[in-house]
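re the bet — no i am not wrong, look at it urself. input seq straight from the record:
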Amino acid sequence: MGKWRELPHELEPDVRALVDRLREMKDDSGQSLAALAGRTPYSKSAWERYLNGRKLPPREAVEALGRLTGRDIAPLTALWELAEQAWNRPRPPGPEADPGGQPAAEAVEPPARPARRRSPGARLAGLLVVSAAVAVGAAAIPAAGGHDAGPHRKPGTTETSTTAAEADVDTQCFADGCAGLDPKDTGCAGDAWTSALARVGRVYVELRYSNACRAAWGRISWGRPGDVAEVVPARGRSLRERVHYDTDVYTAMIPASDPSRAKACTQLTSGRHGCTRPGGQRHLLEPPEPSAPAPPRRTPAHSG
C-alpha cells in the first residue's frame, strides 16, 4: 500500500483515531479506493475524503468497510460516535477586530472549572460499556436486514443520524429519471431510510426514501408468496411487486421531491390490506428480521 498523506493538524483526537482505524482496515484489506467504491455505495472520491480526514464518513460507510474487512461492527460504531461528537463540537470563535483595527473586547465570564480530558481509548472503552448495556436491553429487537441493500440501523432507537451526504453515494438516476428503476441496481439504496412504517397482521409495510435520488419505494417484510408491496405517489401511477418465494419484497421507484409525496401499501393473500401514512422526515427504525419474535406493540395501519 502507498504511504498515506499526513492528516490535518486541526483534527480532533477522536476523529484522528477513527481515520487511523479506517486506514488500517483499508490497508489490511488490500483494496484500492476504486475497489472500495465498487463494493460499497460510496464513491472513490468520497473514500478519498474520508481516509484523508477532509470529511467525517457517515456511520454506514464505517460499517460497510467493517463488514467488508470482517471486523466487529460494535467497536467501530462506538468509535464513530465519539468522532461525530468531536467533529460537530462548536469551535470557539476568534477575537473580532473593531473598525479601528483593534481586537474587540471579550465578555468577561466567571472562570469555568477545567474539564478532565480523557484519551480516545478511555472514552471508547466507556462508550462500549454503555453500548453493551443498551444492546442487552434491546436484545428483543434485533437489527433489520437490508432487504433493498440500504444501510443497517441500530436497534433501540426511533431516529437515526442523517450524517450520510447525498453526494457521497454513487447513483445512476435522479428524480424523474428513477421512475420504474430498481433502487439497488441504481445505487439509490445506498442512503435509503424508512420514512413511514405500519403493520398489517404480521407484515411490516415501509416507505423507503433516497435523498440522493429524490425517489421513494415500498417494501414489505414477513410476507408470504403472493403478498404485494405497493408504492403510491401523491399523483400518478402506483407501482407494485409481489413476493415470489421469500418473505420480503420491494417495488421499483417513483420520483418524489420529499417523502411526504408518497406512501407504501400492501395487499395480502389473506385479503387484508393497509397503507402507511405519507412519509415523514424522521428516520424510523426498520422492522426486525422475520426469524425474530414479533414485538408485542402493534403499529396500526391505515386502510386504503
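see?? Residues 120-137 form the longest helix (18 residues). told u. also Strands lie at 193-200, 203-210, 215-221, 228-233, 239-242, 249-250, 254-255, 262-267, 273-275. so pay up
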